[in-house]
Specification:
By secondary structure, the protein is of the alpha/beta class. It folds into two domains: about 5-210, Spore Coat Polysaccharide Biosynthesis Protein SpsA, Chain A, CATH 3.90.550; about 225-329, no CATH class. Helices cover about 45% and strands about 15% of the residues. It contains twelve helices and nine strands. Strand 2, helix 2 and strand 3 form a beta-alpha-beta unit. Helix 7 (about 185-195) packs parallel to helix 8 (about 230-240), helix 8 runs antiparallel to helix 9 (about 245-270) and helix 9 packs antiparallel against helix 10 (about 275-285). The longest helix is centred in the C-terminal third of the chain and has 26 residues, at about 245-270. It is globular and about 60 Å long. It starts with 5 loop residues before the first strand and ends with a helix.
Length: about 325
């Protein structure tokens, strides 16, 4: 059977300890008609040399070295250089099963979809053995795909991520990853999903999402980690423009919940008064009396109303309750 070219793009920055395993998992794919684009985003460790080493070993590999500009620029450059009909992303510290790309390609073709998605597992195992288990396939339209962002944590995480997906490159037309954003996937995901006529998901685990202490999610908290809040706010207007009022409301409540959560960290960890004022202003802008997040146990209507009246007092009372609870234990 004639196969189509698939572009596998790997943004890379200072991952010398994990990069070989990542590239090896791609090079050994059962689907052979791939180009592998390694975008070295100004790494200061031995990652650039590892990239060059693999380029000499495999003619399918193309290496792009650039000064450090962030993962969004690395993704956009990878897209610009890609020649495949489909795009597959993999983070440079992750790895995939050898059948991953072939399975996603066959699923995409069989179901005639614009995006195929596999299941993932998250952890710190560098030698995870992928199992061939009974799996089910689910197909849905873009509206259902957008709804799955709010289904549960697992679906939300995988729908928002760039990885674990085979994506028609044409979906990226007129779309760019936002520059200088850490959580660039969250800004892009709903736009891509909305452009799909049909999506397929298989619950077979074929992607290993590795968590290490120095990764973005594992680093000590810092101001840039709050850039996802802007993406959450943007979703509110995105759904409103589409006329999806139920999704707009889910996005609004998720945004309010995130603001409550980040208020404490901005106050107690960052001590950033400007950010605190911005969070309070945004909360008052989007809060409506009676709002609450039914999926978050403590966020009753009264709790969210108290935060609206006085974020500082609510935060203070929570700390006192926490201390009293610990003493009681």
């Amino acid at each position: 059977m004639e196969t189509e070219l698939i572009s596998v793009i790997i943004p890379i920055y200072n991952v010398e300890k994990y990069l070989r395993e990542c590239i090896n998992s791609v090079v050994s794919q059962t689907y052979r008609n791939i180009e592998i684009i390694l975008v070295d985003d100004g790494s200061t460790d031995h990652s650039p040399q590892i990239c060059d080493e693999y380029q000499l070993k495999d003619t399918r590999i193309k290496v792009i070295h650039q000064k450090n500009q962030g993962v969004s620029v690395a993704r956009n450059i990878g897209l610009n250089y890609s020649r495949g009909k489909y795009i597959f992303w993999i983070d440079s510290d992750d790895y995939i099963s050898k059948e991953c790309i072939e399975s996603l390609y066959e699923l995409l073709r069989k179901e005639n979809v614009d995006m195929s998605i596999c299941n993932y597992i998250q952890g710190s195992d560098r030698n995870y053995i992928f199992k061939h288990e009974n799996s089910y396939i689910e197909t849905f339209d873009s509206k259902k795909g957008l709804e799955y962002i709010y289904k549960n944590h697992h679906y939300s995480f995988i729908m928002a991520a760039s990885w674990a997906k085979l994506i028609k490159k044409e979906l990226y037309e007129e779309l760019k990853y936002p520059v200088d954003k850490i959580f660039e996937d969250i800004y892009m995901s709903h736009h891509l999903i909305n452009k799909c006529k049909k999506i397929a998901y298989v619950n077979q685990v074929m992607y290993y999402y590795y968590q290490w202490p120095e990764s973005i999610l594992g680093k000590k908290f810092y101001k840039e980690k709050l850039d996802y809040l802007d993406a959450f706010e943007e979703r509110i207007y995105f759904f409103d423009n589409l006329g999806y009022q139920e999704l707009k409301e889910k996005a609004r409540i998720q945004y309010l919940h995130a603001l409550i959560w980040e208020y404490s960290r901005a106050k107690d960890i960052l001590h950033d008064h400007k950010m605190i004022r911005n969070i309070v202003t945004k909360y008052k802008q989007y809060y409506q009396i009676g709002t609450f997040n039914e999926k978050v146990k403590h966020e009753t209507k009264w709790y969210m109303f108290k935060f609206y009246l006085s974020p500082y007092c609510t935060n203070f009372i929570d700390k006192v309750k926490c201390k009293m609870s610990r003493k009681g234990d």
